[in-house]
Amino acid sequence: MTDLDSSNGTPAASDNPRRRRWLALLVVLVLLIGVGGTVFVLYTTGAFSTEIRTEPIQIPGENPFTPPMSQDQPNVTPPPNTGRTFSGDTSGLYGGTLNNSSCNRDAMVAFLRSNPDKAAAWASVQGITPADIPAYVAELTPLILRSDTAVTNHGFSNAKATTVHSVLQAGTAVLVDKFGVPRTRCYCGNPLTPPQTFSRPRYVGPAWPAFSKTNMTIIQPTTYVINEFIILNPITNLVIYRPAGTRGEKDRGDLRDAAIAGSYTLNRTLIRCNGFEQSCMKLPGPMNIRIDCDGNQCSASWLGGGWSRPHPLTREGNTYRTSGEDDSATDCNGSDRPTMITFEVTVTSAETINGAWRAKSLQGRYLVSASAVSGCNAGEVESALSN
Predict the structure, then answer these.
(1) CB atoms near residue 361 (< 10 Å)
(2) Which of 21, 238, 331, 340 has the fewest CB atoms below 10 angstroms from its CB?
(3) Which domain holds residue 97?
(4) What's the whole-model pTM score?
(5) Co-location of 235 and 322 in the same domain
(6) Alpha-carbon distance 152 to 193, whole Å?
(7) Are 317 and 170 in the same domain?
(8) CB neighbours (10 Å) of residue 133?
(9) What is the pLDDT of residues 293-341, one digit of tens each?
């Protein structure tokens, strides 16, 4: 006789498929819990974290593409608040030295040309052909990183390019593309590509004193071509304008930063003259001016001229001027009379002298206003100045 289910008369054997389904579900649940536990253990122990290698300056790292093609800049202190993303055209993001290239592009191209296997691997990282390397490198701009910067670094091993997630130390010399992205580390010739971001980075390698996991820069490419980089000398903070693709030979410094102390021979061109007939007959004539500065305080002296004393200068940008200074003029029947002078010069060009950025050309004006005295009317003389 067949056993019956007491509840509905269905054969008891018919319950077996239901039990098997529940058993299968239980096994799957146990397996999932086991795998989940394993995943949790691996995650918490760091097995799924990604290594980020720290790359100090003046050390080529593993598997360099080329011999050193630059000198990194030591003692670069990153600015504050650099632990975020910046556009590649951000003023002061990069550094450099006026009229000086931080990377030998020609030597790098020549080395790759003489090593075809490396050239092929280098070009593959940049998405170009080996034949395109000279033209591609010629468009890159040599600059210095002013902050610790995340990149994807590519070495050379077993005839192909490797991939190393890296952070480059501030002071590293790089070649930057027209969108503001580092494309080569000059000290080792390694091609660079933008960094990836990871939820659980683990930093390995030698660390420098200023290294901080929370103060690294990520550089975002611009959506347009950069024609000129505004960079800073990382030691002197001199502002430098460097046209993209140049080696530093076309650099322009910010004229506001040019040191003005020195001696100048300024030519005077008469604009107007009233009441100074004797002086007007002597114009035009040179003014031999010496400007002395102590910090931000400057003064001007007329060497062998008509000033009774040096006059302090106030500064506004790259313009320096006196402000209605009292003096005296000997042009009234041989007697002095009270005089107000305005001396104003603007730095219009500058040059590098012994590594310093100094004023070269000045333009301005010189105004003398004398009071009326017995036997002499008021007088005024204005001249344009230039050297």
Answers:
(1) 15
(2) 21
(3) 52-253
(4) 0.72
(5) no
(6) 5
(7) no
(8) 19
(9) 998 899 999 998 778 788 999 999 999 998 766 776 555 666 666 778 8
